[in-house]
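Why this split exists: single-chain examples teach little about how molecules sit against one another. For that reason, every record in the complexes split bundles all components of an assembly together and asks for one structure covering all of them. Below is a record exactly as it appears in the raw files.
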Amino acid sequence: MSSSIQSASTSLKAPDSSQLQLNSQGQLRHFLTTEGLSKALLTDIMDVTESFSSVADKAIKKVPLLRGKTIVNLFFENSTRTRTTFDLAAKRLSADVINLNIATSAATKGESILDTIRNLEAMQADMFVIRHAASGAAHFIASHVAPHVSVINAGDGQHAHPTQAMLDMFTIRQVKKDFSQLKVAIIGDILHSRVARSQIHALKTLGAKEIRVIAPNTLLPSTPSALGVSAYTDLVEGINDVDVVIMLRLQRERMSGALLPSESEYFNCFGLTEKKLAHAKTDVIVMHPGPINRGIEMDAAVADGPHSVILQQVTNGIATRMAIMALTLGQHPSSKAL
Amino acid sequence: MSSSIQSASTSLKAPDSSQLQLNSQGQLRHFLTTEGLSKALLTDIMDVTESFSSVADKAIKKVPLLRGKTIVNLFFENSTRTRTTFDLAAKRLSADVINLNIATSAATKGESILDTIRNLEAMQADMFVIRHAASGAAHFIASHVAPHVSVINAGDGQHAHPTQAMLDMFTIRQVKKDFSQLKVAIIGDILHSRVARSQIHALKTLGAKEIRVIAPNTLLPSTPSALGVSAYTDLVEGINDVDVVIMLRLQRERMSGALLPSESEYFNCFGLTEKKLAHAKTDVIVMHPGPINRGIEMDAAVADGPHSVILQQVTNGIATRMAIMALTLGQHPSSKAL
Amino acid sequence: MSSSIQSASTSLKAPDSSQLQLNSQGQLRHFLTTEGLSKALLTDIMDVTESFSSVADKAIKKVPLLRGKTIVNLFFENSTRTRTTFDLAAKRLSADVINLNIATSAATKGESILDTIRNLEAMQADMFVIRHAASGAAHFIASHVAPHVSVINAGDGQHAHPTQAMLDMFTIRQVKKDFSQLKVAIIGDILHSRVARSQIHALKTLGAKEIRVIAPNTLLPSTPSALGVSAYTDLVEGINDVDVVIMLRLQRERMSGALLPSESEYFNCFGLTEKKLAHAKTDVIVMHPGPINRGIEMDAAVADGPHSVILQQVTNGIATRMAIMALTLGQHPSSKAL
C-alpha cells in the first residue's frame, strides 16, 4: 500500500471531508462520509432513493441516467457482496462498469495507488468506488482526482461506510417515517466499526432522539459522550424501550485476540434473542448489515423473525447506491424522466 | 456447504422436480431436470431454440427480450466454459449478468447458501443459474426462491445437466429430424454422468427407438433396465447400426482410482476410432459435450471428422440456453417481435 | 502451452503477417504487427483514432458501431491494465465482452488452444484479443480462425505489441504533426521488447528521420543496422537533439540475471533525469508505455514533468483500440454517423 495513504491514515483518523464532498454550489460531488453533511442533503439522498425504489419493481429495471458513464469499482479489500451491490446499481443506471481487484493486478507490478488512479482517469473513468483497508483511503483519492471525477467510499478501514449508513437511514425512514422521536441502539464492536461511526453521524444529523451503543467494555469507544451517544455494557438495559436495534457484524478474527472471551460467551451476553428483544418497544425493528453470523450476533429466530428488516436493507442498498451515484455525477433524477 | 443440501443430496438422489418446474398453467418456471417434462414441452424448447438460432447469424446478435432482467450465474463449482455460454446467452437477450464464483467469495465469510440466495433476491435478481458439486442443489434452491424468481440447473453433482441434454436433443433433431426411428449409443462413464442421465430422460420422452449405454462394468449403472436402456461392455457390439453416438467426457480423476485400469487400456477398449465407428450407420453423427480428451475418449480423426457434430453442439448451446432463459422468465418469443 | 505455438515461435521469430493481416480488398482484417503495413493504412488508423477521440469528450461516451458483436479478451498472460483498455474500448463501441483468463480456466482441463478457439468461434465470437507469452501466438491463431473472425495482438512474447505502437504513433502525431523531420530515441531493454520492435516498424513506415536505440550492450539488438536504427550505449549522446524520447519498461526480473548489474547502477547510466533530458530538443516529448518504475527508468520529476505525454498516451490507448477494433471488423466510422 502507498505510504501516502499510510500517513493519511495516521494523521487523519477522521479526515475532514465535509468541504471536499460538496462542489461550489453545495451539491454532492464525492460521498466519503456522512459526517458534516446537512440534514437537507441526507434527506435529498433518501428522497432520490425513494424514486429509484420503484425502478426495481418495473418489468425493465433500468434507467438511462448514467448511459455512457464509466464506473470503476476499485476494491483494494475483497468484498464480493458490496461490490455486487455497486455493480448492480451502476448497471441499472445503464453505466459501463469495470471491476478491478487491485490486490491481484497492478499492485503486483508495483504501480502506486495514485498512478493507478491517474491511468484510469486518463481512460475517462467518471467515478471510482473505493474499498480499502486503510482509513482515509477514499478521502486521499478524492483529494487527488480530476475535477470531473467523483469518488464513493465503499468502506475505508475503521473510518466510514457511508452508503451502508444511508441505506440504513432510508430503511428506518421507510418504517418509522420520522427520526425525531426515535431511540436507536447499536450493538456490537462499536470501537472498530466503520458502519457504526457512519450511522451515528447520520442519526445525529437527522435528529434521532437518543443513540445508545451496547458492547463489552473492550469494544466500546473510550469517550462515547464525545460522539453524542450513551454507552451500555448490559444488553437488556441498553435495548429497553428502543425503536430500532442495529446489530453489527462481529469480525471473527477479534475472537482469537484478547478483546473477546469466546463465541458462546459473547452470544450469552450480547447475542440478540427474542427474549431479550422483548425489552424493546413492541414495534421495534432489527437491522444488520450482513452477512449475519447466526448464533453469534443473533438467533436465527430474530434474524428471520417479524421484527427483522434485514432483507429490506439489502433491497434498499441498490436504490441507495443508485441515488448516490446519480447525485455525485450531477444527474438528479427530479430533472429527468424516469 | 450447507448441511441442508447435504441431506437433500442424500435423501433426494433423484429429487422429484416435475411439479416444481412448472407453474400452475403448466408453463416452465424452473429448469432443473429433463425428467418428467412432457414431449410437448421439450419440443417447444427446441422450437424456441430454432427461432434463436437465427439471431446468431444476424449482424447484430441481440434481442431485447430480457432487457432490465438481472441474471446471476452462481457457480459453486468452477466451469469457465459453461459459465461463458450462459453469460453469452444472457447478454444476447440483453439481460444484465452478475457472475459469482461462490467458492472464493461469500462462503469465506461463512454465509450459508440460503442467505446468499435471500440476499441476491432482495437485490431483485430474476434468475439463478446454479452449478454445484452436490446432487439436488438446484432443486433445493428452486424450492426456496421467491415466486418471481427462476432457477436453471447448470449441472448438479451426478444428478442432472438438463441444458446440455437439450442442446444435444436439438442438435440431433437438426440432423435427424425425427426421433422415432433412432438408435442412440452413449459411451463412457454412465454411472457417474449427470449428462447421460439427463440425455436418457429426454431421449425416452422424445420417443427414441433404442437407447444403449456402453462402458466397462465398473462404470455401468447397476440396473440399466430400470432406466429403460440396454447395456453393453463391448463397444463394437454396442454401436452396431446406431444413428447417434454420444461420447461422455472421462473424468481423469477416475483413472487414479480402482474403477479404471489406465488411459491407454481405456482407449483400446472404449476409445472411438474411425475403424470402430464403421460399425455404426453410414450417416451416424458423433457427439461430445466437450472439452474432449483426444486420444482417450476418441481419436482426433473422429473428433474432427465428417461424422462429428461437436462444434454444432457448441453453437446450439447458446441458442438452447437463450430459449430456456426466455421461457422460464415467461418471455415466449412467439408472442414478441424478434 | 500448445506445441504448435512453441514451434511457430521457434520457426517464425518474425512471422510474416503482412498478407494475413489484410483481406483481398487490402483492408485490415487482423492486427498482429505493424511490420509490413503501408503508410496509408497506418495513417488511416490514426485518422479513425482521431474521430474516436472526440467520443471520449462527449457526455455519453458510446457509439453503437459494434452493437451485437461479441469480443473475447483471451489473455494467456495476465495484464489487468491492457485488458481494461480493450474492455473499455469494446464497451464504448457497444460490443459484448467476454474476459477469459486462460491460465485459470480451460487449460486446467487440458483443452488445447485451438480447441478453445474453435469452441468460442462456435459460440459466434467475432473477435479475439490475444495476449500470450509466446512470440507468434496471435499469428498462429489468426491463421486458423474462421473467415468472419478477427484477431488483435495485445502482446505476444518478445515479438510485437502493435496497438501500443499505434497509440504511441498517434500521440506523436498529435504533438509533432509530421514524422519526416523527427529524431526519436528509444531507451531501455531494446533486445527483449515487443513494444520497441513494433514502434520501430511503425516509425520507419511513417518516415521518421532518425531512430536511435539506447541501452547497455547486453540489451541492444545484435545488428541494429538491420533494423534501420542506430545504437548508443551512452544516454546523453543518444538523446542529443532528439524530438521524442520513448522509455521502455524495465522487467525487474532481468535484474536478477546476468544482463544487468543493479537497479541503482541502471538508473545512474540509463535512468532519465531532467538534467540528462536537457540534451534533447527543448520541445522534446517523453513517452512510456506504463506502468513506470519511478527511480529506475526515470525520475518522478520527468514522469510528471512538462515534457511528459504519458497520460495522454493512456487516453489515446482507448481511442486507438476502438479504431483498430472497428476497422478489423469492417466498420469504418467514416461511412457511419457517430
